[in-house]
Design brief:
The complex is a heterodimer of chains A (490) and B (182). Chain A has a five-stranded antiparallel β-sheet, covered by helices on one side. In chain A, strands 8-24-9-22-23 form a five-stranded antiparallel β-sheet, with no helix packed on it. In chain A, strands 11-10-14-12-13 form a five-stranded antiparallel β-sheet, with no helix packed on it. The relative contact order of chain A is 0.14. Chain A contains ten helices and 24 strands. Chain A folds into two domains: 59 residues, no CATH class; 408 residues, no CATH class. With 182 residues, chain B is mainly alpha-helical. Chain B is built from five helices and no strands. In chain B, helix 2 packs antiparallel against helix 4, helix 3 packs antiparallel against helix 4 and helix 4 runs antiparallel to helix 5. Classes of the chains: A alpha+beta (490), B mainly alpha (182). Chains A and B meet through strand 12, strand 13, strand 17 and strand 18 of A and helix 3 and helix 4 of B.
């Protein structure tokens, strides 16, 4: 052991191969210790203990996490830049993307629902590498868990009438909403209710008719474990409001709290977009006040004064006086009913995937220590081969003016966008991302403003997000409310 | 700098010798080609102006008008979207027209240059100097066209570097889009 000989009172700081520790000098005994020095030592110990307690509290408390929601998402390292297929335990091979039999792909007859939207991207093709991977996995597990694409040979389920497909799910009476169920991409493993819009058990309007519909769908050919959980809001029955996070520019606890008079009509809360500082030129309007000027061309989610909602590329000619709330983020991920496959960057065509990277900014590389590395060691990359796989959300608007919100876990931007296209969306915008921020809460009230039940849109959503909005919250979010009836006081 | 000096000297030489600029091209055997290019160039400029006019014209009056006429019949979202859609369609149409005119301009210029080069080889290279300055003008116009036609949604990425390597399986190493020129 090497003593670095740094004297601190009666103790010496020594270091060995395992680290640093406090030691007493030779020949020193408790009885020999001067009372004042020992008190100091005890004081230091107590202080350290309290600090450790505080650190443990802040690391584990959801409330604290809310306050520090930019902390490194170390718990989701794999999803943010790792390579799941190489590090996952064998028992979870169900998540390995083994998606097709060569003959099924070869004859071109696979019933890919994206054919409807004429979206063909390279993402959808099966690379030789994925076939090699498929062949190398354990035969037994492969047989048991390999998801199969729906094909013409196995398409009986696709040909069944919608009502039969839906089982008990879509029997709720519809208003004028036309909902087209999405034929599943995978035959096995089956996911009950996949692609079927259902309203059973969901909050209803005062007349008992549905106002929201949900479904879940696996849109990715490459990643079978990517599930998009979607909720469709009937915007003829609902109104939508933006809330500005208390720590956001222009935000306060007031702007970040659902107004007491609205609580009895509260139906759902979703996350909004990225934090303002990560949104580049993206602007915002809150209750008619421009907090930051909207930039032309940027994808914009907008709530007009008449409660109608849209997602569009902003144009400076749109009078802001018509707008109640708006926020912007990057580019549309669905445009003219098609997934946006590429964007123009620096004069060249580039991939449209939205990476999250360090603090949600692709332009900044993480410092070495960000992912738990140590200075001096090789940098820990925050981008891997699967850099575009993340927990993310998106909003889409349909031709009928209804809004669809989607949450995807372990999913690419384009696959989430594809799910929205299949849900009938014409345009879509990327929402907030990372497991801590992605939220789709449904609330069941007793009519007196008291919430008696809360339900997550996705089972993978963090449970602590369910009551996060009972008080003010630091980041922006959207509230969905039952519209007031005519004559009802506002 | 050297080019500038060369151009200056060439122009000076032209003036001293009394050789009219493009004497072989604006009149004589290449006059037709020159006129054709000149027309195509002007058409392109006009097409760009038309595009520019629609691009920078405010949609605000149109929205206000439609709000007035449609009243409570349609939602604001629907009215705004209809106006934007119409504008988008008009821009797409004019943008396509610009690209076609750029193609026409390019081919007519090539024809003229070929003709003029053959003629110039018999006498002097003064026309080559003039062509250089014309090419420079054309380059500026094409850069302007590329800027003009850049999707408004991607102006935010204008100064971004494109990813160094295609990392996503969905990445397609496409050629730069926009104006195909030279």
């Amino acid at each position: 052991m090497l003593s670095i000989g740094k004297r601190l009172g009666r103790k010496t700081l020594e270091t060995g191969s395992w680290g640093l520790r406090w030691v007493r000098p030779r020949g020193a005994f408790l009885a020999d210790a001067a009372p004042a020095g020992d008190l100091g030592f005890r004081f230091h110990c107590i202080l350290l203990f309290l600090l450790a307690l505080a650190a443990a509290f802040f690391c584990t408390s959801p409330a604290a996490a809310d306050d520090f929601d930019e902390s490194p998402p170390a718990w989701e390292f794999l999803l943010w830049g790792g390579q799941p297929s190489t590090v996952q335990p064998k028992e979870t091979l169900i998540q390995v993307p083994v998606v097709a039999r060569p003959e099924e792909r070869g004859n071109g007859s696979a019933q890919d629902p994206r054919d409807e939207t004429k979206q063909v991207t390279k993402d959808d093709s099966i690379s030789p590498a994925s076939h090699e991977m498929a062949e190398s996995v354990d035969e037994r597990l492969t047989k048991k868990f390999t998801p199969l694409l729906a094909s013409s040979r196995n398409s009986s389920i696709l040909l069944k009438p919608v009502i039969e497909l839906a089982g008990d799910h879509s029997r709720a009476p519809f208003r004028t909403l036309f909902l087209k169920n999405i034929p599943p991409l995978y035959m096995t493993p089956a996911m009950p209710g996949e692609g079927v819009w259902q309203s059973g058990g969901l909050p209803t309007g005062k007349d008992g008719l549905p106002i929201v519909y949900t479904t879940r769908y696996r849109p990715s050919v490459r990643y079978a474990n990517a599930v998009a959980h979607m909720i469709l809001f009937d915007m003829k029955q609902l109104s939508m409001k933006l809330y500005i996070g208390s720590t956001e520019p222009g935000g306060s606890s007031k702007t970040a709290t659902v107004e007491p008079e609205d609580k009895s009509r509260l139906l759902a809360i979703t996350n909004a977009l990225w934090k303002q500082k990560h949104s580049g030129e993206g602007g915002s309007i809150f209750r008619g006040t421009v907090l930051k000027k909207l930039a032309p061309g940027l994808a914009t989610i907008v709530v007009y004064n008449d409660d109608s909602v849209d997602i569009l590329e902003w144009n400076d000619g749109i009078p802001t006086s018509l707008i109640r709330d708006a926020r912007q983020l990057r580019h549309l991920i669905v445009k003219e009913g098609k997934v946006v496959d590429s964007v123009i960057q620096g004069g060249r065509r580039a991939d449209s995937e939205i990476g999250l990277g360090f603090l949600l900014s692709e332009e900044e590389q993480a410092p070495n220590s960000y992912w738990g590395g140590f200075a001096g060691l090789a940098p820990t990359p925050n981008y891997g081969e699967e850099w575009f796989i993340a927990t993310r959300s998106a909003f889409g608007i349909r031709k009928d003016g209804n809004l669809v919100f989607a949450i995807g876990h372990h999913i690419s931007t384009k696959d989430l966008a594809k799910a929205l296209v299949l849900a009938g969306c014409e345009r879509a915008i990327h929402g907030d991302a990372n497991p801590h921020n992605v939220v789709g809460n449904l609330y069941y009230g007793n009519g007196d403003g008291e919430i008696v039940k809360r339900v997550k849109l996705s089972p993978e959503q963090r449970s602590y997000t369910l009551d996060r909005y009972d008080r003010s919250y630091t980041s922006d979010f959207f509230g969905f409310f039952l519209k007031r009836e005519e004559g009802e006081p506002s | 700098m050297i080019r500038g000096i060369a151009l200056f000297l060439s122009l000076g030489l032209c003036l001293l010798t009394g050789t009219p600029l493009l004497s072989d091209t604006t009149s004589g055997p290449c006059a037709t080609e020159h006129a054709k290019w000149s027309n195509a160039y002007e058409s392109l400029q006009t097409g760009m102006e038309d595009y520019r006019q629609i691009k920078y014209e405010s949609v605000s009056p149109r929205i206000a008008r439609d709000m007035g006429t449609q009243g409570r019949g349609a939602s604001i979202a629907r009215i705004v979207q209809a106006v934007l859609k119409e504008r988008g369609e008009r821009l797409a149409e004019l943008g396509q027209r610009c690209l076609e005119l750029a193609d026409l301009e390019r081919s007519s210029f090539e024809e003229w240059r070929r003709c003029a080069t053959v003629g110039a080889q018999r006498r002097d290279n003064s026309s080559a100097v003039v062509f250089k300055s014309i090419i420079r003008e054309r380059d500026l116009l094409m850069a302007e066209l590329q800027d003009l036609l850049l999707d408004e949604a991607y102006i935010q990425y204008k100064n971004h570097r494109a990813p160094a390597a295609p990392t996503s399986p969905s990445y397609e190493a496409n050629q730069p889009s926009g104006v195909r020129y030279r």
